[in-house]
Amino acid sequence: FLGNVDVVVTDGFTGNIVLKSSEGASKALSRLMKQEITSKWYGFLVGALLKFALKGFRKKTDVSEYGAAMLLGIKGNVFIGHGASNAKSIKSGILYAAHLSQMNLNQKIEKILASMEDV
After folding, report:
1. Which of 15, 16, 38, 117 has the lowest tally of Cβ within 10 angstroms?
2. What is the pLDDT of residues 84-109, one digit of tens each?
């Protein structure tokens, strides 16, 4: 969560639990922050200032910015999207899938794994 890793390898069940828990925690924190800010008389002023300051944060945590995740360990390019995807998320997912497909990421991973000695 602190950006120390780029890839997390897990089975689908565990990964889905972590993903759903993370999304829920993010939504809960956002909702609590909004409630706290709007509960004060000066909250709208603070909220207006925070809106600009948190724009980058919102973009980094908005699932519709990415739209899809590549499933590894499957022959070919397979991407999975969120069940509650909106139009922006679907568009982002398609563009992301096209970009990764053009990079031939699966073939590159296969080549690297094939060249590794047995561990």
Report:
1. 117
2. 788 999 999 999 899 988 998 888 88
Torsion of CA 100, 68, 60, 37, to 10 degrees: 170
Query: Can you state the angle between helices 43-53 and 12-38, rounded to 10 degrees?
Result: 140
For tokens 């609590």, what's the residue? 32
Contact 64, 85 (CB under 8 A): yes
Q: pLDDT (tens digit, 9 = 90+) per residue, 12-42?
A: 889 889 888 888 888 898 899 889 888 888 8
108 closest CA partner among 119, 99, 100: 100
Q: Which pTM value belongs to this model? A: 0.62
Q: Give the tokens for residue 41.
A: 């008389």
- Considering only CA atoms, which of 21, 47, 20 is closest in space to residue 33? 47
Furthest-apart CA pair in the chain: how many Å?
Answer: 65
Tell me the C-alpha distance between 91 and 87, whole Å. Answer: 6
